[in-house]
Amino acid sequence: MSNTQQVVLITGAGSGIGRTTSLKFASNGAKVVLVDYNEQTGNETLKLVQEQGGEGIFVQANVGNSEDVQRYVNTAVETYGRIDVLFNNAGVLQNFSLLADIKESEFDRMFNVNVKGIFLGMKYVIQVMEKQGAGVIINTASTAGVRAEHSMAAYSASKHAVVSLTKSAALEYVKKGIRINAICPGGVDTALTQAVPVMLQESGYIPDELPNMRLGRYAQPEELAEMVVFLASEKSSYMTGSIVVVDGGLTL
User: Fold this and answer.
1) DSSP labels for 99-136?
2) In the chain, what are the domain boundaries?
3) Is the dihedral of CA 31, 121, 86, 92 positive or negative?
4) Sheet with 31-36: strands ordered across
5) Is-contact 165 122, C-beta < 8 A?
6) Residue 118's CB: how many other CB atoms inside 10 A?
7) How many angstroms separate the CA atoms of 41 and 43, rounded?
8) Pick from 87, 66, 86: which is nearest to 16 by CA?
9) Do residues 12 and 91 make contact, with C-beta atoms less than 8 angstroms apart?
10) Over the stretch 30-55, which tens digit does the pLDDT of each residue have?
């Protein structure tokens, strides 16, 4: 199925990669179901979609809450009759610190959003896709999901879990018409990464090692959006369980 015919559900749609990808899908003719915890930024994305002539709806939800996830899935099906693509993208970044200094509440926050949110999204969308006999899921992991990152142990652990969930689900549903892949961005020029210098300044803590952007710049959100659209299309029809690193050579 081409993007022009797809119903695409996108979590974390209120900003960054999620917003840019939402606009990309909509510009290709897809109907988009936008999900974000922040109602204001989510509605802003919807307005941008509509201003460019796209079609979509916004659902406010906490991706780590089972009732909220079932509600956004049910709303998508009630509105458009199906879900062809899930871009399981919502995530949060850890406050930089050594492992022994990580607060338990911070560890729980990482896993509630970054892992449970991915798990619940797949759990309930897969049930819809099984009935359809087809579907595509793209999870947002990170380069921190394929290697360790200094002073980000909880975040790295959560993203390693996303990689494992992606591979396990891909294996389980490969014969049911559902393809499941993950993207692993390195540094991306979004509000999240732009806030890092302020986070470091406020904490007064600087990690011993910082990521080396070998291309000399952060990725633009559009560069990640292009990869997501590709993975959602028939052009990637032989890909499932793939962990696609888009990092400008960061992990070399």
Assistant:
1) GGG--HHHHHHHIIIIIIHHHHHHHHHHHHHHHHT-EE
2) 3-245
3) positive
4) 55-60, 31-36, 7-11, 85-88, 135-140, 178-185, 243-246
5) yes
6) 30
7) 5
8) 87
9) yes
10) 999 999 999 999 999 999 999 999 99
Among 159, 155, 158, which residue's Cα sits nearest to residue 145?
159
How far is the C-alpha of 218 from the C-alpha of 204, rounded, in Å? 24
CB under 8 Å to 96, separation ≥6 — which residues?
Answer: 151, 152, 199, 200, 203, 205, 207
pLDDT-based confidence at residue 115 (cuts at 50, 70, 90):
very high
* Sign of the torsion angle spanned by Cα atoms 111, 116, 121, 122: positive
Cβ atoms of 9 and 125 within 8 Å: the answer is: yes
* E strand segments, the chain: 7-11, 31-36, 55-60, 85-88, 135-140, 178-185, 243-246
Q: Which residues are catalytic?
A: 155
The structure tokens listed for 163 are 């990689």
Instruction: Tokens for 2, please give them.
Output: 């081409």
Q: What 8-state DSSP symbol labels residue 85?
A: E
Question: What are the residues whose beta carbons fall under 8 Å from the beta carbon of 20, sequence distance 6 or more?
Answer: 221, 222, 224, 225
**The CATH number of the domain covering residues in 3-245:** 3.40.50.720
Structure-token match 């999620």, residue found: 18
pTM: 0.92
Residue 208: band (very low, low, confident or very high) from pLDDT cuts 50, 70, 90? low
